[in-house]
Fold this sequence. Notes:
Blueprint: H1 3-15, H2 18-23, H3 42-54, E1 64-67, H4 73-78, E2 87-91, H5 94-103, E3 108-111, E4 124-130, H6 139-149, E5 150-163, H7 185-195, E6 198-204, H8 206-226, H9 232-252, E7 253-262
Parallel strand pairs: 1-2, 1-4, 2-3, 4-5
Antiparallel strand pairs: 5-7, 6-7
Helix pairs in contact: 8-9
Amino acid sequence: MTAQDRMIRTYDRTMVSRDYQQYFEDSGFYNFGYWNSHAKSQREASEALVDHLIDKIPNKEGRILDVACGPGGTTKRLLRSYAQDMITGINVSQAQIAEARKRAPGCTFHVMDATRLDFPEAQFDAVICVEAAFHFNTRDTFLRESLRVLKPGGSLVLSDMLLCKFFRPFAELAKIPRANLVASIAEFRSHLAAAGFEAIDVRDATQACLGGFRRHVARWPASERRGGRMGIGKSLVASLVGWAMATYLGIVCRTYLLASARKPVI
């Protein structure tokens, strides 16, 4: 079994679990969310993150490609800004694509690797990728492919993570290619420029996204218990898991970033 196969199996198992579905309210999202808003739940924060990225696309007409669409939460949210026949979602998991088709009927979906996009050049007006590019083998290949399938003047928007230096020896265990371990926002920006993008904007959103998620996931079990949606025993276990996850992410993730860029107009 390849590293990618193991990654797909891990995410597929997580996304059918009751705990995942309860935490994300069966929304099809799987991201940290954007909490510098009025978000009261993880679902609302996840929606806010997608909205924040969409706001960075100056022209919301034409076709958009949702890369690593997962079970379809992002794709469904895109329907607020795009017609269904203008939206295409891709993912490496057959199971997740099946769920995405249920959540966003009318949109087009393909099982496809983000680093080998089976589309002609200049096919899309925008590409969005939420919290997945650090897994791609490699991120740079994905950036070049995104540039290729974008029309001149088209936009790329994404959220991504920069991991701490000490994590490097363990990167492959987490299904993260070492080539993706970028050290800083300045270096990340240089990778976008090297791929051929311009109008590059990369911003630190660690507190707004990861910080908010860490606070919420730690408090969520107690909130569920008070609301009668979770028993005492399960809430105690969930509290320990939430605390461990929040601590781990705080140590491992150096920077959570939001980025946008544009393909030059020839």
